[in-house]
Amino acid sequence: MKTQITNNENQVLKAIQNFTAEDFGSDSPAWCNVHEINIDSRQLRALITTLSTKGILTLIDDEGFADGSFVEINKGFYKLTGKRTNAGSPEFKFINLEVK
Length: 100
Known about the structure:
Elements: E1 3-5, H1 7-22, E2 31-33, H2 41-53, E3 57-60, E4 70-73, E5 78-84, E6 90-94, E7 97-99
């Protein structure tokens, strides 16, 4: 069964995917610095909270500051394609999600 997400939630996930494609530098192929997502900060925090509640995202604290600086897409919601982006990061596609 697929997890349903809204268009706005999908926008956040696509922003993470685009960030990862251009600026890879983590053990996870599906992560993003929250400040790189170009959405109003209040709306973004609400969307991240909703995606986290649905089990799609995990907030990651930066060096113990408990600030939720980074988000990571949980492994059950993306699949590596085996290809690399132009920046050399692993390419992934979303799975188990349905935009409603």
